[in-house]
Amino acid sequence: MRFYSTLVLLTLIIFTSCHQQSGSRKKRKVRDTTHYTQQAYIDQALDSNYVINFLQTHKTYDAYDEYILNFYRKRDFHYAWINKDGLTEQAGNFINMMKNDAAYGIKDSSLITPDLQVLTDTLLVSDTGLKPGDTAIPHIEMLLTAQFFAYGNKVWGGLTADSAKDLEWFIPRKKIDMESLLDSIVGKKNNAFEEDEPVNRQYILLRQQLRKLAAIEAELRWDTIYTTQKSFKKGDSATVIAQVKRKLEAFGDLPNHDSSGRFSVALDTAIRSFQARMGIKVDGIINKNVLDALNTPIQDRIQKVLLNMERLRWVPIEPSTDYIVVNIPEFKMHVYEKGKLAWSCNVVVGKPGTSTVVFTKELRYIVFSPYWNVPPGILTNEVLPGLRRGGSTYLARQNMEIVGASGKPVAPGTINFSRYSGGNFPYTVRQKPGGKNSLGKVKFLFPNEYNIYLHDTPARYLFGENKRSFSHGCIRIQEPKHLAEWLLRDDPSWTEQKIDDAMNADKEKYVTIKDKVPVFIVYFTAFVDSQGRLNFRDDVYGHDQKLAAALFGTTTGEEK
């Protein structure tokens, strides 16, 4: 409560300072133009010794001492947050942002420090706002600046970013130039905090959706819907249907109010929209999966949004170039051209136990008609047992061969397979190019230490499954030819016919990509899609559970 009192007092200043009457003013300091660009700084300046003393006596901000001092040195110690009329517009915006974030659940002990309480104790509030010459003014200025660095590092950089790798997230943490950002924001008018936030656009979209969920929680009782009937379809009538309509209307899937118990055409459309957003099979039928999703408490939805906002604090601002995103819980690949979504397709990812790793690398090579070198784990558990039972017959059935270090084939009859495991087998077992090849007709390499890549697959039926975690870690893509065409679109020598021929050859062919394309393998269980709809997905690998423990000290309501 003391924290919120502080924020209320500061907010009052924003309004009262706008009406402050002109009084006695100190003679304005003449600006030394040799130290400034054309950007106008506030005329009043701090005593440099005051800044140094503040930093020495406020150990809470030790991590930011150097940055804060450099910030003021670059602006010749001129004020950033307080002018002759009181707190600036951007000071008010910053205070409101902290207040709103706290209200929506973005909390951390380093953001609510005892130093903030000092504002309540020292700030003089009157009908005329801040008094000229008030001794609290430099202290307020320094606290706001120090708080900006602490807030920005945590809320824009990540409350748990330092432990991201412990949470199995290996995309490098983004870097923020807080000094330049603050200098830019305080010099602007309007709400520069929202415009200049150094965050991925998905973060802003999720925060908007968070506010909507908070409003639903405040305004609507989220009663559990019970029924003994297995399903309802278009044309049916039941009390349950009216309850479903009420929740879909609150979510925005059902745009028009309808309190009847009849399953209408409009409800069929709304159910399909909701199913698509929840990652449920889209069939327009109210069944157990739909009711379970509708019965999920709004607070659980809010927590899931907060978890994914935290992940978004770690990632770079979206590139304006070409790039590829694979979202593991969504089982989707999204291809971006010059920063804009070009197309998407289904993918199959690693199953729990052989999960796909969250990381980023650059796509460099296309391999047409590839060999598949059997990895040690599969060699131990599947291939070697098959070789012990069938030898050359097993190899022929799997379209495989054994090669030595030189790449030349080795006759299986010369090998005693019972002597070896996957770890000490001195040869390579590989599957030849062709229709049975586990990698299909093409693979896409972005060299990495996890040996993960994108590839085609002969098991096309898996893309029709709703939840697609079946692989040993690599990512199978539904439209491999489309991806090859897209990557080679600027090379006129690679016609559609040439790509078809390369995919159906009996010889492996490597192609180096002229311009490397970043690939981001990510893990978002809440996101806003290209239609502006809030989506939720299951926590496939239990990563939400681990992040919730780190962020909130709790677990999610979702089972692993």
What number is the mean pLDDT?
Answer: 85
Shape label:
globular
What percent of residues adopt helix (DSSP H or I)?
25-40%
Q: What is the radius of gyration?
A: 30 Å
For the largest beta-sheet, the strand count, sense and barrel status come to:
8 strands, mixed, barrel
Q: Quote the beta fraction.
A: 5-15%
Q: Are there runs of 5+ residues with pLDDT below 50, and where?
A: 1-39, 120-128
Number of strands: 16
**Overall SS class:** alpha+beta
- Count, helices: 18
First CA to last CA: what distance?
Answer: 36 Å
Biggest sheet strand line-up: 3-4-5-13-11-10-6-14
What does the model show?
With 560 residues, this protein is α+β, with helices and mostly antiparallel strands. Helix content is 38%, strand content 14%. The strands form four sheets. It has an eight-stranded mixed β-barrel with strand order 3-4-5-13-11-10-6-14. A hairpin with a 4-residue loop joins strand 3 (323-327) and strand 4. Helix 2 runs antiparallel to helix 3, helix 9 (201-219) runs antiparallel to helix 13 (298-314) and helix 14 crosses helix 15 (392-398). The protein is globular, with a radius of gyration of 30 Å.
